[in-house]
Amino acid sequence: MRSFVIGGAGFIGSHLVERLVERGPVTVFDNLTVGKREFLGSLLTEADRTPDNPQSHGTLARVRLVVADALDFPTLQEAMRGHDIVFHLAANPEARWGLERSRLDLEQGTLATYNALEAARLAGVQRFVLASSGTVYGNTPEPCAEQDLGNLPISLYGASKLAGEALVSAYVECFGLRACILRFGNVVGPRGTHGAILDFCNKLHAHPEYLDVLGDGRQSKPYVYVTDCTKGLLYVVDHAPEALAVYNLAPPDSTSVRRLAELCVASSPFPNARIEFGSTPQGWPGDVPTSRLIAQKLAALGFTLAHSSDEAVAKAVKDIAHQVFVSGVS
Fold first, then answer.
1. Nearest-angstrom CA–CA distance, 179 and 156
2. According to the model, what pLDDT value does residue 270 have?
């Protein structure tokens, strides 16, 4: 299987690429604004790992890296030719950034997804996978199954994900594409480039005496360990019978922000740091305080996550604490 992974040098993308190389050659298409060459490690050719070579087309090893933006449509279309499946994981990685630059999610979410779909159509790629998010369900504290879209998203990030899903659905109907949409819980683990755990560890590294937490700490969401995420994603690709397969990928339980903060302090070199919570139920405008995803459809297909939300968080805190406090990577 010849795989094309947009955002493949990022957090989830690099873990996915490690599994895809077992199936065949992989092309990673990434602008490296958040993703990192080192996340792909020895999978790259020596030419691809040369920093001064922005677009390498050397000897094909297990992975070829094309450094470009998904908004560069001609480059994207040309690079996509000759592949069997597209995995589109590129997006604005941090929902809060949309508050500072309101076009960010439109560009890196909606428009990039359109470009990926249109490039796949013109390149003759028949299969497409979109990494979506539980944020499409909006501010809904009740558990949500795939058909539960009664509330609209409340963040620009969530809006861009829902728009991307609609585009995928239209391309399936209009152009005969086969597609999978995976609505992830909060994915955590090694190589994390964003999220509360990394934010907390970086704050403790900068100010060891206290940890400032946005919101009152009662925010609660389902967390998915990154290797569970990639296994589930590929399971859907391999087993979903629908032309348009939409699946939640999350554990049934959730973990509070208070618990995340406590674990980060305990795993840091500063176990006596005090935790200072805010007074609002939201961490920021657009934050969904309580999120629950029902993944029974995925279970009925035959896949269950290896880790609960609490277990995923516990493992991820150790990963990120080592990354920040031992390796010095923020």
1. 24
2. 96
Q: Calculate the CA 26 to chain-centre distance.
A: 18
DSSP run (H or E) holding 6:
strand 3-6
204: Cβ contacts below 8 Å, ≥ 6 apart:
211, 264, 265, 268, 270, 273
Read off the pLDDT band of 57 (50, 70, 90). very low
User: How confident is the model over 189-206, as pLDDT tens digits?
Assistant: 999 988 999 999 999 999
Residues 110-138 have pLDDT tens digits of 999 999 999 999 999 999 999 999 999 99
Q: CA 190, CA 8: separation in Å to the nearest integer?
A: 15
pLDDT at 49: 46
> Which structure tokens are listed for 115?
């470009």
Residue 16: alpha-carbon gap to chain centroid = 10
Listed residue (35, 27, 26) closest to 7, CA to CA: 35
Q: Whole-angstrom Cα distance, residue 87 to residue 131?
A: 8
Instruction: Dig out the tokens for 264 from the structure.
Output: 């980060």
Q: Does domain 3-188+223-253+291-307 have CATH number 3.40.50.720?
A: yes
